[in-house]
Structures are given as structure tokens and as C-alpha cells.
Amino acid sequence: MIIVLSKEHKEYLIWFKPEILQTINWAGNPEKPVLISPDNVETISPRNSFEAWSQTVYGISLPWTLEEIESVQRLKEEILYVINLKAGAIKLLNEKLRQAYEELDTFSYTVSHDLKNPIAAIKGYAELLERNNSIGQQAQKIAGRIGERITKMNFLINAVLDYAHLGRLDINYKRINAKVLIEDIVNDLDLEHNPEKLIITINELPDLYGDRVMMSQVFTNLISNAIKYSRNASPAIINISATDNENEILYSIKDNGLGILQKDLHIIFDLFNRMENARQIEGSGVGLAIVKRIVEKHNGRLWVESIVGEGSVFYVAFKKELPIMNALDIN
Ligand code: ADP
Questions:
Q1: Which residue has its alpha carbon closest to ligand 1 atom 7?
Q2: Which of 126, 159, 220, 312 could, after both became Cys, cross-link 146 (CB 3.0–4.6 A)?
Q3: Ligand 1 within 6 A of CB of 252
Q4: Which of 229, 276, 281 to mutate to test the pocket of ligand 1 (most atoms within 8 A of CB)?
Q5: What is the pLDDT along the chain (331 residues), one digit of tens a residue?
Q6: C-alpha of residue 26 to centroid of ligand 1, in Å
Q7: Listed residue (171, 170, 165) closest to 104, CA to CA
Q8: Is there an atom of ligand 1 within 6 Å of 258 CB?
Q9: Could you tell me where the beta strands, DSSP code E, fall in the chain?
Q10: Sign of the CA dihedral running 176, 179, 182, 188
């Protein structure tokens, strides 16, 4: 007996009854073949004895009783009732979570935004002091340091603003020529063309569907990280390629840089997390959190494989199909 809880999720409850072997006694073998005479007349041959003909029946259980059927129907109603109740509670929680996220985004956005003016003022005063010879060299040096830290703070605030801003943006799906996008990004990075120091290979890359601005952020962050964290390799070798799977396109950005410890692989995508071996290199710890947020917004997947001292490969996979709600705009 089977009850269907959800066809969509392929959830069923199935009961089995054991096989009951039965021996049935017949007056004769009902399957006994009919005799055909030479002139094509079918005749039933008479039995030669009165012995009962017995047959063993396999693969059959006792039939389900009415009580059993009714109990299963009641059980199904109970289960569906509980599932609906839980689904309602989860929906409510989801809605609360969404609101909390929105509030958090608005909060970070407002705070970072409001901090910009006082910070700009402090930076201005620090610069004035640094140029004021009457306060003495030592004080001027300190004023210079204040200016440097303020620049760093500004950089962090802008990163948080970018991150919070993402939560408010809707995706404007477009078909994007990934090869052109990535070539533009690499050109815009304005790198020194010195093949002894840096070799970037861009392989054939299939088009992708996504928000052009957000995709540009994803690849800019991943490529600039690959360059930044392989600075010490000579030469640094960056390889950008893609594979076309059944329903996803998988892009990979490979470098031969510092690498990441296995234990850290899952935390590098969290906000402000910077690894011990990257401390010497300038950064905010926001870039990969932005990448993660954009990829999740596009229902894509993101992960990294890495060996310390050998390098890392960052993977991003995007669905090939465009979500139905959005109009297709090919350009
Ligand atoms: P940032 O680069 O500004 O520090 P990210 O969020 O982009 O911030 O990266 C977080 C951390 O992940 C980095 O500080 C670094 O420790 C590590 N990381 C990211 N990309 C790489 C890479 N290609 N190779 C080695 N480490 C990396």
C-alpha cells in the first residue's frame, strides 16, 4: 500500500505485506493443454485418476483489510496536517529572516554612509596638520599616520557600502559575453606587461546569463585576488577557463600563489575574514563576501580548492537557463 506525501519532493510511504504461500487443491489442472487431433479437432482428454491436483501459489499476500486501509488514510491526513503546520511556521520565519537581513543592510548602509562626512573632515584636518611646520616633525609624522589610517578606513567603509548595497539591488538579467567581459576586466586592471612576472591565460569562455555589473564585480574580485595573492611567484601564472556542463557553466580562476589552508577554505567567503598568510598583502576581507552574495543571488555555486604554497582554484558555476520571470535581453 502506498501513500503519496509529495510528488514534487518524491516523498512516499510504502507498506509491504509478507508473502503467504498457499496450496490450492483443484479437481484438475486448469492449464492442462487441449489435445488437437490430426483433423484439427480440439478435444479435452479425460482424467485418468480422481486424485486432487494441487498448486502452490507464490508472490501473493493476504489482501489489505478495510481497517488497515482506513488507518493509512487517517495517517496520511495527520502527516499532511503536520507538514502544512511546519511549512507555515517556516514561511513565517523566512519572512522574518528576510526582514532582518534588510534591516541589517539598511543599518550598515546608513552607518557607513553617515560616517563618510566626519571621516572626510578628519582626513582634511590631518592633512592640514601634516603640512603645518609649526607643530614640529614628530607631530607632523603622527598627523601623516592619521591620514593613512583614515584612507584605510575609507576603503573599508566603501567596501561595506558595496556589500550592503548589493542586498538592495535587483538582478538585471542579460546574456553576457564572458570572454569579452573578462578580457575587459584584465585590461582595466592595467597590469604591467612583463611575462617574466605575470602570465594570464584566458581560454574559450561560454556566454553566461546574469547581471552585467554584478558579474563584473565577481570576476574582478576573483581575478584581482589571483594576481594579488600570487605576487611572490615568478612568474605568477593565472589561468581562466570554463566548462559547459548539462545545466551549468563552470568558470575557474586558477593561480599559483600563496594558497589557503584546508581548515580555512570554508571561512574565506565570510565578511572581513583574512588569512594569516595574507596579512602582508593589502586587503579588506570584503571581496569574497561580495562574490558569494552575488553568486547566491544568481542561484549559482561557489567554492575553492587550494594547496598552501602551490596555489588556488576558485570555481563559480551559473545556471545556463534564464529564470522565466525575467525578460530575455540579448545584446
Ligand atoms: P581581501 O583580498 O581584500 O583580503 P577577500 O574577501 O577578497 O578579501 O579575500 C579574503 C581572504 O581570502 C584574503 O584575505 C586571503 O587570505 C584569501 N584569499 C582570497 N583569494 C585568494 C587567493 N587567490 N589565493 C590565496 N588566498 C586568497
A1: 287
A2: 126
A3: no
A4: 229
A5: 999 988 888 899 999 999 998 888 887 777 777 778 788 887 777 667 777 778 888 888 999 999 999 999 999 999 999 999 999 999 999 999 888 888 888 888 888 888 888 999 999 999 999 999 999 999 999 999 999 999 988 888 888 888 888 877 889 999 999 999 999 999 988 777 777 889 999 999 999 999 999 999 999 999 999 999 999 998 999 999 999 988 899 999 999 999 999 999 989 999 889 998 898 898 889 999 999 999 999 999 999 999 999 999 999 999 987 765 444 443 3
A6: 82
A7: 165
A8: yes
A9: 2-6, 11-14, 22-26, 35-36, 42-43, 53-57, 173-176, 198-202, 208-211, 236-244, 248-255, 301-307, 311-319
A10: negative
Tell whether ligand 1 has an atom less than 6 A from the beta carbon of residue 222.
no
Atom in ligand 1 nearest the alpha carbon of residue 276: 16
173 strand-pairing partners: 211
Can you tell me which atom of ligand 1 is nearest the CA of 258?
A: 25
Ligand 1 neighbour 147 (Cβ under 6 A): no
> C-alpha cell of 312?
588556488
Q: Ligand 1 within 6 A of 311 CB?
A: no
Q: Whose CA is closest to atom 12 on ligand 1?
A: 268
Backbone angles phi, psi at 251, to 5 degrees: -100, 145
Q: Which atom of ligand 1 is nearest to the CA of 274?
A: 14
C-alpha cell of 323?
A: 529564470
Strand pairing category for 236-244 and 198-202: parallel
